[in-house]
Amino acid sequence: MARPSTLGELRASGWQSVPVKEEMRRNAVARVSAGQPLFAGVLGYEDTVMPQLENALLAGHDVVFLGERGQAKTRMIRSLTGLLDEWMPVVAGSEINDDPFHPVSRHARDLVAHHGDATPIEWVHRDDRYGEKLATPDTSIADLIGEVDPIKVAEGRYLSDELTIHYGLVPRTNRGIFAINELPDLAERIQVGLLNVLEERDVQIRGYRVRLPLDVLLVASANPEDYTNRGRMITPLKDRFGSQIRTHYPRDAATEMAIVRAEARASTIADVQVHWPEFMEDVVATISQAARASSHVNQRSGVSVRLTVANRELLGANAVRRALRLGEREVAPRVGDLAALAPAMAGKIEVEAMEEGRDGAILQSLVSAAVLQVFRRRVVSERLGEVVAAFDEGLVVHGGDDVTVDRYGGMIASVPGLAHLVEGLVGGSAAAPVAASAAEFILEGLHLGKRLNKDVAGSSSTYRARA
Description:
Structural class: alpha/beta
CATH superfamily of the largest domain: P-loop containing nucleotide triphosphate hydrolases
Oligomer: single chain
Number of strands: 17
């Protein structure tokens, strides 16, 4: 259906103008009533954050999300555009999305006064009704609110002419959503400039006697104040936000795994098919969970879900590199590939160690603890003793990057009880690379459980009896 192109056609169509918060409330009510989530792709918040956000939208509140890094604050903010109507009419040529029925800028008022019902109308998509600014110390009032445009003055307009104003980011998202990320980093004198936007719903530019009654949903993100030493959110501004919603990290490894799978890239890299054993994904998620519970990790800075995503990507990349060297076209990440996680962990975890040079050992202990925890959770069998007994009789098994899937297959068949354990872990129809990964995982779990010894030389490892 063709959309109206003039003000008269818009009136005749029956379209009604509503404030942006009422528009979002209406669309949120429709989703909640239908049992649908406000937006897809955010997991683990169904019973905690989402009910609070639904309440805030139904109440028509401006919102500040408070939480550590990597807790999907920005993703939720950007997804709010899905609660806007798909298309919205504005006065043609308006810089601030003027409502055709209630224009506020000088340009739009003059156009409507001159053309009346023949005033041309443009339609703006909801994705273009979103503005965002990362708060930095050099952010100015001109960036957010506006400033005199010297070019327009040079063209012959008087300084007192409202048309000389160059509008900032906030007015340009009129009738939309404006987001400020890391709000406490914004200089306090600049935060003061937002007070009118939140309470009086207008902006004041320089010394102009101009009032722009804006219609904006203001959303912000911030780190907890006890961690953010670079700045703070001033109390009057905090008071003007209707709701403060505290976010959190995934509460369990299963939720973390689901989030990482949603973020996962293609399972084929360089023509090598990557099979992902569930227990290895569990290990990757449990590493992050263990880091968030560790006294050696700075919990104020947080352990982002980005760590889990980066670890999974590195784990897959190292497995592919191994497959390329061995000439294999299918591969599954193994315990030996966990050594490749050091670059991601070192950059995303702030270790608090009493001694210099202990960071690497602490990170390795987190990995080992995660492997042991997943092993105890997933491998429960009386056949473990049978495997240990075989090693007590002199069995020695070699693993590492140079061991092919076929060699692991032969080892599984030769070690008493191991085939039964592998089948219990990954099933009888698992691909050969997955079975090889399971075998190495079981041996590593027995080592970490102090039932086998392990000698490491570079990327190679040897499992033998404790004696």
